[in-house]
Design a protein that fits this description.
Length: 754
């Protein structure tokens, strides 16, 4: 592509073969070159004497390229001005890609077209500003005002890159750990395609396919942003139509579709509407049209003619649709299909770190929670996660947001978006859709019980279930069958819990199944059910269930859960899963239930050998915070605890007994397996205090010594021992003496044997 006047000679030379074969109306070109004094009388006479078209074209090109860049520039200007007469449609795009620079103002179109482009760019910026304001509303007025694009995974439909909207599953059950299963939902961005790449490509027809909320609109709005912010001399146009506009198109006239709303208040441009439309038709390669949300517009003749290039034959047409409609006859046109897959791991992290007033601890709490992190691969879900965290960490909020409440708000937002309802009408709309929602919940429960993500559920694009589902192809030898599945496994578990709330008589059966090896996976719907029964979330579900129904189910519910997961004489197979029960209690948000649980475990939480992420630590911290008169013993022996999670637990250290022992266990585990950066931050978190067992391995003492001696400030050393301080060996005393310049004080802590 040429970029300046100096490139004109190369631009002509590069297209020499095509020009020789395809130039039309050579007498007109020769006459125009003569008028511009590029050719003289003798040269014109010599050309007229050549009968063969190709020989004549070759001679013209030889002369103008030999005459230099100025002659080539005049030649290109003539081709641009007379393109309809001298160039085939195939070369219209070629000539439009040449940037003529300041010397070509006379061929850059009428003034009215420049005014239209200015209006289109202003409108594009208004559309992007409106999106920012809507985001700002969700973030309580703290969102950034500038449109920001986080890279999406955009996969082209090629033989080497199969579309991912129809997922291929093996027939046998997967035995991946739950964390790996959840991570598998996150797409990998191997191709690195961008909206700018699509916009700048030679493709004239682009179809972006993806589920609701997966990022289709974000991708095309990035195209809009890129065009609106671009500053160049080329006169080009971009028209954007969203679904709301598309559903209300009543015109069958190209001029009305493109210009009516744009020039409504400009009398001068209204008078020049025909001139503008004619220019757009003559120079259609300068036009890009985005139809964001095509669905069910088969009878709209004007859209059909534009999409199939009957009108504006050289325009770039970009269309977004859902997977259910991509194979519709409406899209039976030569096109480049691009599948929008959502955020990659890198993009999820980028999105979370760019949250308004983001708290690094909150970012880590999502990143370290496999369920929440993988859920965020859907941009709409990531948006709701960020918005909820932003609200619950604001000055006006005095409590944390549970995972269930987060999913309920995602659920409500998706339905509101699907029904295009005002917030004040949302509850009534959900109530109208109750039967369909519960039918989907029943299907989710059945699939969860069978340990599959494949649902045998009939739905259409317009059905409310289409907001949460995607197509799935299950392939086995010599057989393929199409099912549907939820966009994320945890959304399926959430809907399963909704069904349990509707059918509480099944609760006993589910709790019994959770204790078996075959159905132990069903326990993951229990925390969601606890959350649905919380007094905090009951008001959000009054449109689905009468308030008395959850309250009736809640009575005696957690007692049944405890009887299921707590055993008077736990054996090796069914040991107490204290972390899981803490998560259930955190979702239930009931002080009474917490106290009952603590009494059952004698105020002792055994979390030894656990790997605790921040989300789990938050649940443990909540249970500890509910203890009243009796402190809790926390056993973290050989446990790995994230720094942010440990900080959350230590906020309620006043409710812990044997705190020194707990911190000694944390330091012992950390010195065994953590990196030095973790140890340095752990030292800061503990207020420059380090807790060491007296009887331990020499390697741990060496590691601790490095942290102590490298500290910029003096360290307080706590030596944890049993009832007899004489356990301190001479060798360890000599080791401590080498640390003394970096130690402010040494304390003996009598704890139980570590």
């Amino acid at each position: 592509m040429a970029c300046s006047v100096q490139c004109a000679q190369d631009y002509v030379s590069d297209a020499r073969v095509d020009l020789i074969e395809q130039l039309k109306n050579l007498p007109l070109i020769i006459e125009k070159l003569y008028q511009k004094k590029v050719l003289n009388n003798t040269e014109v006479s010599d050309l007229e004497a050549i009968p063969e078209k190709c020989r004549k074209a070759r001679k013209v090109l030889d002369w103008i390229t030999n005459k230099g860049k100025d002659a080539c520039l005049e030649f290109l200007k003539i081709l641009d001005l007379e393109r309809k007469s001298v160039l085939p449609l195939k070369l219209h795009t070629w000539i439009s890609h040449f940037s003529f620079g300041e010397e070509s103002d006379d061929i850059q179109g009428p003034t009215s077209c420049h005014e239209i482009r200015t209006l289109l760019k202003t409108k594009a910026k208004e559309i992007l500003d409106q999106q920012c304001k809507r985001s700002n509303h969700f973030f309580g007025g703290n969102a950034k005002q500038k449109f920001t694009y986080i890279p999406l995974v955009l996969d082209r439909d090629t033989e080497k890159n199969k579309p991912h909207n129809k997922v291929i599953h093996k027939s046998k059950k997967s035995k991946k750990p739950r964390g790996k299963k959840l991570r598998s939902y996150i797409p990998k961005d191997t191709c690195r395609n961008t909206p700018e790449d699509l916009l700048n490509s030679q493709e004239k027809s682009i179809l972006l396919v993806g589920k609701p909320g997966i990022g289709k609109t974000t991708a095309v709005k990035q195209m809009l942003y890129f065009w609106a912010e671009r500053h160049d001399e080329n006169l080009d146009f971009m028209f954007y139509f969203d679904k709301n506009v598309l559903t209300n198109i009543a015109t069958s006239n190209l001029q009305s579709l493109l210009l009516d709303t744009l020039i409504m208040s400009n009398a001068d441009l209204r008078q020049k509407a025909e001139e503008i439309t004619q220019y757009l038709e003559d120079y259609s390669e300068k036009v890009t049209i985005i139809f964001d949300g095509i669905s069910g517009f088969h009878d709209n003749n004007i859209l059909l003619r534009i999409i199939h290039h009957e009108l504006l034959p050289e325009a770039k047409i970009v269309v977004t649709c859902r997977p259910e409609t991509e194979d519709d006859d409406f899209f039976d046109w030569p096109t480049c299909k691009v599948y929008v897959q959502g955020f990659s791991e890198e993009s999820i992290y980028t999105y979370l770190t760019q949250m308004p007033d983001q708290d690094p601890e909150l970012v880590n709490s999502v990143v370290d929670n496999p369920a929440l992190f993988s859920l965020c691969h859907v941009p709409m879900y990531a948006f709701m996660v960020a918005a909820c965290f932003s609200y619950y960490t604001s000055e006006g909020a005095h409590k944390q947001c549970t995972a269930t409440e987060l999913y309920i708000r995602i659920f409500r937002h998706c339905i509101q978006r699907h029904g295009n309802k005002k917030l004040r009408h949302l509850d009534a709309h959900i109530k109208d859709c109750k039967d369909k929602i519960l039918l989907l919940a029943e299907s989710a429960f059945s699939a969860t019980k069978l340990k599959t993500i494949n649902l045998e559920f009939d739905y259409s694009d317009s059905c409310i279930a289409g907001v949460f589902l995607r197509s799935v192809s299950v392939v086995s030898p010599a057989f393929a069958r199409t099912f549907c599945s939820f966009l994320h496994n945890t959304i399926q578990e959430f809907f399963s819990a909704l069904w349990l709330l509707e059918k509480p008589q099944k609760l006993h059966e589910v709790l019994q199944l959770c204790q078996t090896e075959e159905y132990k996976h069903m326990k993951y719907m229990i925390p969601f059910l606890c959350g649905l029964l919380s007094e905090t979330t009951i008001p959000l579900l009054k449109c689905l269930f009468p308030p008395d129904q959850p309250k009736g189910t809640c009575h005696g519910f957690f007692e049944k859960v405890l009887k299921t997961f707590l055993h008077d004489e736990p054996d090796e197979e069914y040991s107490v899963d204290a972390v899981f029960l803490c998560q259930c209690l955190n979702e239930l948000q009931s002080s009474e239930a917490c106290l009952w649980f603590l009494e059952r475990v004698d105020y002792s939480l055994d979390l030894s050998e656990e790997h605790l992420d921040p989300h789990q630590c938050c649940a443990v911290s909540y249970v500890i915070s509910q203890s009243r008169d009796k402190p809790v013993h926390l056993n973290l022996e050989n446990s790995v605890v994230s720094l942010s999670g440990l900080k959350t637990i230590l906020r309620h250290s006043q409710n812990l007994r044997d705190l020194s022992m707990t911190l000694c266990q944390v330091w012992t585990a950390a010195l065994k397996c953590e990196q030095q950066s973790y140890l340095i931050n752990l030292l800061l978190l503990c207020g420059k205090e380090i807790y060491l067992p007296i009887i331990t391995q020499k390697a741990l003492h060496q590691q601790a010594g490095e942290i102590i001696t490298q500290s910029a400030d003096p360290v307080i050393l706590h030596l944890c021992c049993g009832q007899n301080p004489q356990q301190l060996s001479d060798a360890f005393c000599r080791t401590i003496s080498t640390w003394l310049p970096s130690i402010s004080s040494v304390h003996y802590e009598n704890v139980y044997e570590v």
